[in-house]
Amino acid sequence: MPCTVIVGAFWGDEGKGKIISYLALKDRIDFCVRTGSVNAAHTVWKDGQKFALHMVPAAFVYEKTRLLIAAGANVHVGQFFKELEQTKVDGRMGVDQNASVIEEKHSVQDKASAFNKGIGTTGWGVGPALEERVRRTAKLARDIPELKPFLTDSVQEINDGLDNGKRVLLEGTQGFMLSLFHGTYPYVTGRDTGASAIASEAGVGPTRVDDVLIVYKSFMTRVGAGPLPGEVTKEEALKRGWFETAAGTGRDRRSAPFDFDLAKKTAKINGATQAAVTKLDSMFPTCQGARKLDDLTDEAKSFIKEVEKRTGVPVVLVGTGPDALDIIDLRK
Ligand code: IMP
Ligand code: MG
Question: What is 211-241 written as a DSSP string?
Answer without folding.
Answer: EEEEEEESEEEE-SSS--TT-B-HHHHHHHT
